[in-house]
What we know:
This protein has helices at 3-17, 57-69, 108-121, 140-145, 151-155, 165-168, 174-180, 195-209, 213-225, 250-261, 274-280, 344-352, 364-377, 414-419, 523-533, 540-547, 552-563; strands at residues 75-82, 85-91, 101-102, 231-232, 246-248, 265-266, 269-270, 294-296, 301-303, 308-313, 317-322, 327-333, 397-401, 427-435, 438-445, 448-453, 455-456, 460-466, 469-481, 487-495, 501-509, 512-520, 566-571. By secondary structure, it is of the alpha+beta class. Strands 13, 14, 15, 16, 17, 18, 19, 20, 21, 22 and 23 form an eleven-stranded mixed beta sheet that branches.
Amino acid sequence: MNLTTASRTFQLLSRIMDVRTATEPLLPPVAEKPPIPLGPVSQPFPRSTPESQGVSSRHLQSFLEELDRGRELYAQSALILRNGRVICEAAYGAQDLRAAKYTFSACKSVVSLAVGLLVDDGLLRVDEEVAAIFDEAGSGSLRRRMKGMTVEDLLTMRSGVQFTEAEALTETDWVRRFLGDAFKGEPGTEFAYNSLNTYMLAAVVRRRAGKSLTDLLRERLFEPMGITDAYWETCPKGIEKGGWGLYIRPEDLAKLGQLVLNGGVWRGRRLLSRAYLDAALTAHARPPAETGDYNYGYQIWVGRQENVFLFNGMLGQNVLGFRDSGILVLTHAGADTDFQESRYFEIVSRYFGGRFPDCLPEDGEAYAALGETVRALSAYNREAECIDARSEPFLHRSFTVEDPRAVSAGLLPLSLQALHNNYTAGVTSVALSVKGGTPELIYRERDALYRLPVGLGRPAVSQLSFRGNVFQVAALGRFTHDEEERPVFYIRLAFIETPCVRIIKLVLDGDCLLLRQTETPGVPYVSGKLCQAAQSPLYKPLLLMAAGGAEEDFLRYKTRQILSPEIVCRAAEG
C-alpha cells in the first residue's frame, strides 16, 4: 500500500467509524445496481423426480432440513441437479429463486470461463506476461519489474501484487494501481487470495477480445444458454470488477456450473474446450489449510479429497460439481464465512459425495413429503395475518429522531453502503401507517424518503431505490412485546438479491420510541475482520488512527456502535 492509498483508506475508515457524522465517500457515488426483475429463467433445466435420477427424495428432504437447523449457516436457497435435471429447489424464509443473486467471489469462476474462450480462439495464452498486454506497462523499468508475471499467475492467485479490494474502494484507476504496486513475493510462487487478480483478468479480456467481459460472455455463453438479466458492476473506468459484482439468477448460475460439469458442452453444442477446462480444474496452487479442504485451479476451487469443483463466494455462495456422480449443488447463504471453513462443506459432502445409482424406484409418498418440506421452508406459503390491537400504539404516529448518533444510521445495511460507495445521510424520522390493510413503514433520511410495506405472517416485496441503486426488499414484521411488556414492532428486511438482512425493532417507551437496528452479516463477522486486520502490521496503524484503538474488546464495541445502534426518537406533535 503506497502512502496516498494508505491516507485515503484511513480517511474512509475514519468516516465510517465515526458515528457522530454521516459518512462522506471519497469517490463520487455512482448508481451501480439497476432494477433487476423477479422472473423465471429462459431455457430452464428440465425437472425430474429425484428417484428417476438415482437420488432419494427423503435424502434430499433430510439435507434441506439439516441446512435449516444449522442456524449459523443462514441458508437462503438450494438448487440440486443430477444429469442436467433439477431434482430439488428450495428457498428459505423470504428468499426467492427468481431473484438475481449477488455472487461475491463465485463469479471469479465465470471470469475463468471467459479467459478460456479467448484461449480457445487463440487470442490469449496463459503463459503470456501481463506487462506485454497493457500499454501502461510500456516503460522499460515497469516491464523489468513485472517480468515473469503471467496470465496464469493471475488465474491461480499467484501474482504477488499487494493491491487489494479494500484499497480499490478509494482508487479510480485500478489497472494503473495494480501494475504500479509493490510485490509481496515472486510471481508464480506463493498463493495469496486477492480479487484484484480477477479484476485484471477482466481487463485482459477487454484488451484481447476488443469488447467487455459482459459482451463476450453474452455473445458466447449467456445467449446460447438462455442466461438473461445478468448484471456485472464495473470499476470507475468501466471495466467489470471481475472478482465480485455479478448478479445472476441461481438457475442461470447453475447452467455455468453444469457447463463445467459437462466438459464445456451445452445441450449437445460445444461452447468451451475440454482442454481449457481440464487445465482450469487442475490444482495449481495449495491455499492455506484455514481456507478449507480445496486447492486452487484457474479461478475455480478443486477438492483435495474428492473429485469435485467449486465456485465459491463469501458468506455462502457456492456451486459444487461432483464430477463422478454428475450431481450439481448450488446454494446461497448469509453465513459469517469467507471460504470453505463453514460446516456446510462437511454437510454437502456427506450427502452428495458418495456413489449414486442410475435410478431408484419411484416413491410417491417420499416425493410428496419433500414437496411439503420445500413449501414449509418458504415464508410466502404462509397465511397473511391481519392487523390487530397490538398494532394500535404504533399506527398513524410519527417519531422524530433526536439522537445525534442517527446521522450514521440508515435503512440500507452498512455492508451494502460500503460495497456500493453509497452512504446514508442519516435517519431523521420514522412513522407507521396502513395501506391496503398492510402496515407501511415510513423511514425518512436527510435526503430520502422510503415507504415500505411490511407483511404480517407473509413477506411483502417492494423495490427501493438508494440513490439509484435499486434493490428488491422482502419485509416481514410482527407486533409483540418485550420482557418489560413494552409494545414492539419487529421488522425483518431481506435484501433478497444479496445475503444482507436489516432488522429493525421499534420499541415504545412512553412518549419515546427506541429505534434499534442491526444487520447480518453483522457484528460478529465485521468485528472479527477488524480484529484480524489488527494483527497485520499493514493495517494495525490505520485502525489505531481511524478507530482509536486496536484491542479486540474495543473493536467489538466500535462495531456494535456502527452496526447495532439504539436511537432515541420523540413522538411528533400533532
